[in-house]
Amino acid sequence: MPRIKHTKNELKAQRDALRRFERYLPTLQLKKQQLQLEIRQMDAMIERKRGELEAAKSELAPWIRLFAEPFPFHEYLRLAERRETVGNIAGVVIPVLESLRFERRMPDLFETPPWVDDGLEMLERQARLTIELEVLTEQRRRVAEELRTTTQRINLFEKVKIPETRENIRVIRIFLGDQMTAEVARSKIAKGKSSEKERAA
What we know:
Layout: H1 8-60, H2 64-68, E1 77-89, E2 92-104, H3 116-200
Helix pairs in contact: 1-3
């Protein structure tokens, strides 16, 4: 604990600091609640997206043997554009997926197997879901990091700063009270001595 001055100015500074801490703490607690709510909603969205991805993979299972055949899918399907913007959740900057655009080249119907169209459709869906899941996971990571920082600040205020400041105020008040008592006692002693001199004269 840093050493404090036992002065009226320090007492005022400590009282001001306590007021600041007590005013800022509810804001932090509100932010923490908001972040926790956002994380719960994100967890539900991530779980839903994972479910969709698993369903897409299950649909792909009967096709596995066909996909085992060498086929240049990358020539017929590619991610042409991935547009992201930024959003804000309780002061946290997060990536927001705006759009995905895939380019699909029409396969030659005479040279490619008949299942290629459906296969490309399934691959695009799976790629889309994977990217959406990546973005949601990054959003959650950033919000969770901010929640961790906010929780640390709340703990700092509740467990360190506010009790420390209250203790400083208590110590300074006791010191100033003792000083005032000592001054009154000195004043009475001086007055008593002065009265004795007057009587003696």
